[in-house]
Amino acid sequence: QVQLVETGGGLVQAGDSLRLSCAASGRTFSSSTMAWFRQAPGKERAFVAAVGSSTNYADSVKGRFTISRDNTKNTVYLQMNSLKPEDTAVYFCAAFRLGDGTYKYWGQGTQVTVSS
């Protein structure tokens, strides 16, 4: 059974940094695209960043967030710097990007709250 477990969320002040981790188990994702999404209160889930053969970022986080992966640990990370109140959301890890652009596996999410 595949599981994605996110950790590292919390309450921080604007300008602070956080690093989220997503540990995968049940299969290896070293050759699969993995991504981070987020969902703010009252909004739809939105793409944040992805790592596969290259990395991609939402415009709102470019230059502040960095996605990386450690295939030896089957883990993907999201380093978030210069956090803003508008980054407040539940952050979800996703793995195994399908042909239609959706992801097959999702984590349960971790809350990130940025106070002003």
Summarize the entry for a quick read.
The protein has 116 residues and is mainly β. It is built from no helices and 11 strands.
Shape: globular
Gap between N and C termini, in Å? 40 Å
> Proportion of β residues?
over 45%
- Tally the helices: what do you get? 0
Q: Helix proportion of residues, in percent?
A: under 10%
Number of strands: 11
**Structural class by helix and strand composition:** mainly beta
What's the helix-strand series?
A: EEEEEEEEEEE
Average of the residue pLDDT scores:
95
Radius of gyration: 13 Å
Low-confidence stretches: none
3D architecture notes:
- Strands 2, 4, 5, 6, 9, 10 and 11 form a 7-stranded mixed β-sheet that branches. The chain has a 4-stranded antiparallel β-sheet with strand order 1-3-8-7, with no helix packed on it.
- 0% of the residues lie in helices and 54% in strands.
- The mean pLDDT is 95.
- With 116 residues, it is mainly beta.
List keywords for this structure.
116 residues, mainly beta, 7-stranded mixed beta sheet, 4-stranded antiparallel beta sheet, 11 strands
Question: Which SSEs are present, and which pair or pack?
Answer:
Blueprint: E1 3-7, E2 10-13, E3 18-25, E4 34-39, E5 46-51, E6 55-57, E7 65-70, E8 75-80, E9 89-97, E10 103-106, E11 110-115
Parallel strand pairs: 2-11
Antiparallel strand pairs: 1-3, 3-8, 4-5, 4-9, 5-6, 7-8, 9-10, 9-11
